[in-house]
Amino acid sequence: MEPGRRGTAALLALLCVGCVLRAGRAQYERYSFRSFPRDELMPLESAYRHALDKYSGEHWAESVGYLEISLRLHRLLRDSEAFCHRNCSAAQRPEPAAGLASYPELRLFGGLLRRAHCLKRCKQGLPAFRQANNLPKAIAAAHTFLLKHPDDEMMKRNMAYYKSLPGAEDYIKDLETKSYESLFIRAVRAYNGENWRTSITDMELALPDFFKAFYECLAACEGSREIKDFKDFYLSIAVNDLKNAAPCAVSYLLFDQNDKVMQQNLVYYQYHRDAWGLLDEHFQPRPEAVQFFNVTTLQKELYDFAKENIMDDDEGEVVEYVDDLLELEETS
């Protein structure tokens, strides 16, 4: 091709790209949260990856189109979050039930449950609600998911793509592993190997981290994760340290009153209490166990209250619920 013709072709190409950019910019300016095109709804990460793929293949127009979709999806995600929180914060709180008047804690958590229920319904009606694109978190999340679901084909493909990226190995980690879990597993292995002292040490080290994680969860979340096997931190270990073993056994029985082995251990400790110098105070549960038991008992009462008073969402009502909120917002 002659130099003049090559220059003309380059100018024409640049003009075409400029036209596409102007069209895309106009589309972004006409963005509407209430009438977002359903055919453009997709995960934000997928839209951006499509844009990069088209760019690598020198499909400029398609690349610009997907980049514009990514921008609109990002804005839609942000507006969806704000919409739900704004409407759920403005929702009128019903008068508490008469039976809850003497339970201020249940009334407080009941309000949190109602807000969580409102946010859940609202977000279910907004299909654009997706986690923002964050590569390190995406890699770690995919790896964590595959540890629990190793046969998931879509996630395996995603992980293969992530591993092809430079530096991806630095972000591969299990997000679900907690420090107390590692210590507890190590303690159990020591216990199985009859290394009693090491087992006790690791279990005692696990307890502060466990309580820290639990109470941080209470402080930061609208609901806490159910932990069924907490009693396992209070095993009675055979190291002839009866002054510590007895309160551990009593603490264990707080969470499982029908455990026959621990009941027999406690009877054994009571029988030899004089010979071993055990006092009444040694047969009291550990304070941190009592506190945890009281908190989880209250949570159980709240859970039963929620089961009775908060019904599962009907799928057919979700869209109508969001439409009602939109109409209310427009008239206000």
TrEMBL record:
- Matching InterPro entries, A to Z? Collagen_mod_leprecan (IPR052284), Leprecan_dom (IPR056585)
Q: Name one GO biological process term.
A: collagen fibril organization
Record the organism.
Saimiri boliviensis boliviensis (Bolivian squirrel monkey)
Pfam families per UniProt: TPR_leprecan
Could you tell me what this protein is called?
Cartilage associated protein
Statement: the UniProt record of this protein carries the keyword Zinc-finger: no
PANTHER family xrefs: CARTILAGE-ASSOCIATED PROTEIN (PTHR13986:SF3), PROTEIN LYSINE HYDROXYLATION COMPLEX COMPONENT (PTHR13986)
The organism's superkingdom is given as: Eukaryota
Q: Name one GO molecular function term.
A: collagen binding
Q: Which residues belong to the signal peptide in this entry?
A: 1-26
In the UniProt record, the gene name given for this protein reads CRTAP
On whether Cytoplasm is a keyword of this UniProt record, the answer is no
Q: Where does the Leprecan-like alpha-helical domain lie?
A: 128-238
Q: Name one GO cellular component term.
A: endoplasmic reticulum
UniProt KW keywords: Glycoprotein, Signal
